[in-house]
Write a structure and sequence with these properties.
mainly alpha
């Protein structure tokens, strides 16, 4: 399944969807206008590291959660 996700065609399809939705910068601060060149330069390296189970994502920025679900009324 992961091979399908990492397929070049699917990655570029996802990229086009982000552009079409006018996606905002992610937690890494990368702008949509920078995404294509990053994808072209790093796709193979990242895909290989994911397939080899050596990819280590950067920690996300945000609010820590206790894991409890709180329903707001």
């Amino acid at each position: 399944m992961i091979e399908k996700v990492l397929n070049r065609k699917n990655l570029y399809k996802a990229y086009r969807q982000v552009v079409r939705n006018k996606g905002s910068a992610g937690v890494d601060g990368m702008k949509v206008t920078e995404l294509l060149s990053f994808l072209e330069s790093n796709r193979d390296r990242i895909a290989i590291s994911i397939l080899n189970h050596t990819y280590v994502p950067k920690p996300i920025k945000g609010v820590e959660s206790s894991g409890a679900y709180h329903e707001h009324h």
